Amino acid sequence: MHRAYLVLPTCPLAMILLQLLRVYLILIIIRALMSWFKPDPTAPLVRILAWITEP
Fold first, then answer.
1. pLDDT by residue (tens digit) across 4-27?
2. What is the pLDDT of residue 13?
3. CA–CA separation, 13 vs 51, rounded Å?
4. What average pLDDT is seen over the chain?
5. How far apart are CA 52 and CA 28, in angstroms?
6. Helices 44-53 & 12-34, crossing angle to 10 degrees?
7. How far apart are CA 53 and CA 23, in angstroms?
């Protein structure tokens, strides 16, 4: 029986890029969740989050 294992990159640059992608994905999810609550668009956190995740 063969088991599939998650292979993580060993290159430091690849590891950094993987972490950045994870953080970006979390920020996108947070922004999607915030859209349900209608936060104040002038709040600094909301503006920064929109600036980072806006396509």
1. 666 667 778 888 998 999 999 999
2. 84
3. 25
4. 87
5. 9
6. 120
7. 11
Residue whose tokens read 């396509």: 55
Query: Is 26 buried (19+), middle (13-18) or exposed (0-12) by CB count in 10 A?
Result: exposed
CA distance 33 to 53: 13
The domains of the chain are located at 17-53
Cα 37 from Cα 28, distance rounded (Å): 15
Q: What is the pTM of this model?
A: 0.73
Question: What's the length of the chain?
Answer: 55
**Using an 8 Å Cβ cutoff, are 34 and 46 in contact?**
yes
For 1-55, where are the E strands, in sequence order? Answer: none
Q: What is the mean pLDDT of residues 25-32?
A: 95
